[in-house]
Amino acid sequence: MDIAHLPRRTFLRGAAGLAVAGAAGLVLPRAAQAATEPRIYSCAEWGARPPTDALTTLDHPANRILIHHIASANSTDYSLAHAFQVARDDQHDHIDNNGWSDTGQHFTVSRGGYRLEGRHGSLDALRGRTTMIQGAHCPGQNTNAIGIENEGLYTSVEPPETQFASLVVFCAYICRQYGIPVEEIKGHRDFYNTECPGDRLYAKLPLLRSEVAKALKSM
Questions:
Q1: pTM listed for this prediction
Q2: What pLDDT is attached to residue 138?
Q3: Cys-Cys crosslink for 180: which of 152, 165, 175, 198, Cβ 3.0 to 4.6 Å?
């Protein structure tokens, strides 16, 4: 099973044990960490290009999550293959058109609910919990906020339920890993003059925070 591909209850049950161990100061084996991590496809898995320049690893954890939308077509192709193509197209756009070294955001969630690493090194940093990769998703926030792009355009329609449910699980995992309070799950427009992440997705951020808070309480 994959989408949101890890059942929410299964994720939370596994995360509960890890949270207790972490609070006790225990070092858990990588296998135990992997058992509680939702499925996230790495840059290598979706066929990312190498960065054009060296990326910066920052010696501190993230303290915020910024929610974006790609402002792409609201595709009805919810397959993994399509999610991989979205990631490749996004990276090409950011490197070739924006002149960035790599994909700007740290992670992406497809309309089918697949979670993908965006910027190289972001997944390993998240797993490690103490560092982050400098992003390029929002001026003034790239050294402290994890950027999550959501495939689609959400100015007048809401994201599919599968995508939103996957986003909840993903944000809960990121908040737990970095110790980010749910109040720090924000929208791109909160820090930049933009319509992103679209009126309809932005309106769902209070629900996102509340669902993530419920998830964290169950850990």
A1: 0.85
A2: 97
A3: 175
Residue with tokens 């109040």, as numbered in its chain? 183
Number of domains present in the structure of the chain: 1
CATH of the domain at 109: 3.40.80.10
Contacts for 33-39: CB closer than 8 Å, 24+ residues apart:
33/127, 36/11, 36/173, 37/127, 37/173, 38/4, 38/5, 38/6, 38/11, 38/115, 38/166, 38/169, 38/170, 38/173, 39/2, 39/5, 39/6, 39/114, 39/115
Query: Per the domain annotation, does 2 fall within a domain?
Result: no
Pick from 108, 106, 102, 55: which is nearest to 86 by CA? Answer: 108
Q: Which pLDDT does position 36 carry in this prediction? A: 84
Question: For 47, left (φ over 0), alpha (ψ -120 to 50), or beta?
Answer: left
Query: What does the pLDDT look like over 177-203, one tens digit per residue?
Result: 999 999 999 999 999 999 999 999 999
